[in-house]
Amino acid sequence: MHHFLEKASAMYYNGNPILSDEEFDALARKYRYEEVGYQVTDGIPHMYRMYSLQKVFNLEDIESSTAPMVRTPKLDGAAVSLQYVNGHLAQALTRGDGQLGRDITLKMEELVPNVVGIKGNLQITGEVVAPDTIPNARNFAAGSLNLKDYMEFRERCKELRFVAYDIQGDVSYERLSEAMNHLAQQGFHTITHFDATGYPTDGEVFRVDSYDAFYKLGYTAHHPRGAFALKEQKDGVITELLDVVWQVGKSGVVSPVAILRPVEVGDALVSRATLHNIEYIRSLNLEIGCSVEVIRSGEIIPRIVRRVDVEKNSS
């Protein structure tokens, strides 16, 4: 399972996720998988490490912080770091594994101010997003940054936005909200000013506003202690697993497909769902005739997320 989660993680960072966030988180919890991100072999180091955020599904799960917090939408796109040296954009990197990313400087020159009125060395981190009128908007954003064809990227630029959510380096802002106001004056979209309506979001981010308090709280191996992502727990629909068939995909890979008792999920009638591979089936302990919970991952592909043991004597 760790090998499968590594593969799922790599596919996610390449912009072609094979698991939804809910499924990945559920499997990662079950198998105590803690590798956040994956190793980028041809990577360049970020000036400051890009941490992931601790995910919570309930505000009660949070250790209450007395420090005032900023609450912003969690944009669902591709995370990027920008390095400016004495006001000039010097380098832009994909998030990669948080420590090493791939160089996308030429592409990001099309999306962000190339010159800013801030001296010294600084790293601005943020999210490249596409509007959710585009099918698979998250994949579109991440995939655009991976394009080999520069002209095709320029074509896509009118759909893409870079939204800054942090700044580090030779700067001395007291609060995140103050920093974002300054970046907005420099011509950036910022997370505190950006209207996320019409863009894919994946919950909300709560972060301690004071930089001093935020850094004093420190970091775990994976997350800052002064911020967290509040995720929506998407409800699935319960139905019966009638059969499992094997089908050959376009790439020639044989994969299992669940045949389900037809059920409405969202606004679609679903009778089949992807099962990825035998390992995935085993991890969910599926068997013919059992009840399963189905979600539409990314609102497109139906997927089984868990087995549900229904009480036999319930009416």
CATH H-tier superfamily of the largest domain: DNA ligase/mRNA capping enzyme
* CATH top level label of the largest domain: Alpha Beta
Mean pLDDT: 84
What is the end-to-end distance? 37 Å
According to DSSP, the number of beta strands is 16
Series of secondary-structure elements, N-terminal to C-terminal = HHEEEEEEHEHHEHEEHEEEEHEE
Low-confidence stretches: none
In total, the number of domains comes to 3
Shape designation: globular
Q: Which range does the strand content fall in?
A: 25-35%
Number of helices: 8
The neighbouring-strand order within the major sheet is 5-4-7-8-9
Coarse structural class: alpha+beta
Query: How large, in whole angstroms, is the Cα Rg?
Result: 21 Å
Largest sheet: 5 strands, mixed
* Helix share, percent: 10-25%
- What is the CATH topology of the largest domain? D-amino Acid Aminotransferase, Chain A, domain 1
From the 3D coordinates, which CATH architecture of the largest domain would you assign? 2-Layer Sandwich
